[in-house]
Amino acid sequence: MMIAIYLLLSAAVAVSTLAARSRRTMHLAGSLYYLIQALFALWLLAGGGYGRAAGTLFEFDAAGTLFYILLAIVSFWVFHHSETYLSECDQRQTRTYFALAMLLTTAIAGAYFASNIAVTWIFLEATTLCSAGIIYHRRTAQTLEAAWKYVFVCSTGIAMAYLGILLLAATTKCESLSYEAVAAVAAQGNPLYLKIAFLLILCGYSCKMELFPLYTVGVDANFAAPAPASALISTGLVNAGFLAILRVYRLLAGTEVFGWAKSVLLLTGVLSLAIGALFLRRTNNYKRFLSYSTVENMGIAAIGLGIGGAGVWAAVFHVVCHTFVKSSLFLQMGVVRQVYNGYRINRLGDYIRINRVGAVGLLVGMVVVMAFPPSPLFISELMILRETIAAGKWWLVAAMLLLLCIVIYSFCLRMIRLCYQPNQDELHPSKADKALSWSALLLLLCAMILGLWQPEALRTVIDQIAAL
After folding, report:
1. N- or C-end of the chain: fewer Cβ atoms within 10 A?
2. What are the residue ranges of helices labelled H in 210-285?
């Protein structure tokens, strides 16, 4: 009952934003929306629904609760930054953007709490429509192409996942598509059909998690969307894809194909890490650059799932911390655009003089995303490497270390260039909003705190998520 009330109220407030006749009304609608998110998060934290079923289609489990709280925090920051980012847009564009951003947040939350494979699929499809509208925000030929590409590729991916779900249901002969019911009888399924179903679901949901093979659509989406929206897509939506794949991975844990599924995840993770690392060197746009960093980080998370053991815990922790780091960097890039009116890597520079706070935020973010202490990503990557060594997969250790060195070199080169190299003569930078840079820096500080100290409650929740 509570989840239905939450979804209906959130969707109603989001849709009502379309009728707003002034920016003040849009601000009030946004304030009401995030009040609902805050109250729902507090209700969950207070134990009102945690660990309980919410009807037959939803459940307030550890994974949904943790990722929802992260979503509520990041989406609030996105709303705050978007108000300034869109200050020059007309009212129609602005209210459409805010309505779609709120609907996207609601759809992601629905995917987090879904306890049924089909319901997860429905909410992930809903995120496609909301994201496409946000991608087309600027109403240019380039954003129109990106929006249609996003709809086409994501719909193809979702269709593949749907075929995988149908095959999974057929081979397990399970009348209910709840994760719990399918997991209970998965071992009775035909191994070949289980393998094909997992491949289809993994390939289909890779467009949401930004993994190989359908990672390109996420990169194009982040390139075309406003920077604050990219922060939401690269964290909240990517986390929804990760959670959907993790839940299918867990229901196969008791079957004879589990070892094979782990090997597929290892291969997918290595390919994603390689693609992210290599394209970090080639791209000439800072938003694409951060998007390929997301592909690289999700590749590391997939390797954690594939290696198993403590690697599963590390993968979940990696994704949690990546949420804070990547949202902070994308929001900082929104301030960079405010200054330079663009993201071209070979044209921008001298940012340390124009916006010292923002430059420090980007440089510290560079250190954190490269997994140098006190980065929490250092902990997760070290755990994954340790499990890989324990498993005797030295080829994987060598590949990861080589590719991570390329990532470190690329990040250092790009971020130091932005902060210190001279500007192009024809560029005339504008004044930066340092308050927004401080705001984005707070999210990065949250990640660094997790690198130094992990609360016992967080460890317990991740233990529950990682338990197979």
Report:
1. N
2. 216-224, 227-232, 238-251, 258-282
Burial letters for 106-142: b for 16+ Cβ neighbours within 10 Å, e otherwise?
Answer: bbbbbbbbbbbbebbbebbbbbbbbbbbbbbbbeeee
Mean pLDDT (whole number) for 328-339? 92
CA dihedral 410, 416, 421, 427 (to 10 degrees): 90
Q: Which pLDDT score, from 0 to 100, does residue 427 have?
A: 62
Question: Residue 466 class from Cβ within 10 Å (0-12 exposed, 13-18 middle, 19+ buried)?
Answer: buried
pLDDT greater than 80 at residue 468? no
Q: What is the DSSP letter of 430?
A: P
* Cα 51 from Cα 44, distance rounded (Å): 9
State yes or no: pLDDT of 30 exceeds 70. yes
Q: Are 165 and 118 in contact (CB under 8 A)?
A: yes
Assign 3-state DSSP to the chain and report helix, strand, coil percentages, each to 5.
80, 0, 20
Instruction: Return all residues near 342 (Cβ < 8 A) that are at least 6 apart.
Output: 348
pLDDT number for residue 303: 97
Phi, psi for 198 (deg, rounded to 5): -65, -40
Average pLDDT over residues 297-302: 96
Is the pLDDT score of 157 beyond 70? yes
- Across 312-318, average pLDDT: 97
Contact yes or no for 468/253 (Cβ under 8 A) = yes
Mean pLDDT (the chain) is 91
